[in-house]
């Protein structure tokens, strides 16, 4: 999730906002085509080994140099096929599933239904933030990296802060803007750079300075101190090469 804002630290605002996101990690399940490809490679490996053994026997018995060359070629093919079969499949990058704004529920019904998230956060989102239809209503120069990606935009009623929730690669900024594209450090008391899931993707994509900046409050770094449970701080996005695009 990316944020744009014109003030340096959204944590200083006394209103707290929580947007529920679910992280979907795909397990490396083989497809039908991949299974067929593995069978073909295994068959070719067996044939290559059989040819290597056969030509080696003929070369040893008859002393034919050409058969020795054929043996070497067959062994080389067997090694290549073995490497292809043993190569591990790369796991897919984690992606975010975008959840739409929660519909307003009448009070009499809300009293009977247990909310899936703490009610006070939903009340803050509903009462202090305004859902905007398009990015151009906020700033005509703001565009998305992918024009077809889904997104939702909220504007804070009491401060010049805009919250943009999108889908896409979590390790890249998804919003083109001259404003501040921000990385938000997750609410985790033990959050450190280089962890798993979203943490790993963001750590690999951003400069260590960017990550460390999310651990500051009022410009002061809390040396050796992690984020408090439920605490979330933000900082301008900085790529590995010190760019911010």
Description of the molecule:
The protein is built from six helices and twelve strands. By secondary structure, the protein is an alpha+beta fold. It has two domains: 2-26 and 106-236, no CATH class; 32-86. It has a six-stranded antiparallel beta sheet with strand order 4-6-7-1-9-12. Strands 2-3 form a two-stranded antiparallel ribbon. The protein has a two-stranded antiparallel ribbon with strand order 5-8. Strand 6 (151-156) and strand 7 (161-166) form a beta hairpin. Helix 1 (32-62) runs antiparallel to helix 2 (65-86).
The total count of strands amounts to: 12
What portion of residues is helical? 25-40%
Our estimate of the beta-strand percent is: 15-25%
Strand order of the largest sheet: 4-6-7-1-9-12
- Overall spatial form: elongated
The total tally of domains equals 2
Whole-number radius of gyration? Answer: 28 Å
Enumerate the spans where pLDDT stays under 50 for 5 or more consecutive residues.
1-27
Largest sheet: 6 strands, antiparallel
Number of helices: 6
> What is the structural class?
alpha+beta
Distance between the termini: 15 Å
Arithmetic mean pLDDT: 67
- Could you spell the SSE succession in H and E letters? EEHHEHHEEEEEEHHEEE
Keywords: Membrane, Transmembrane, Transmembrane helix
Transmembrane segments: 42-62, 68-86
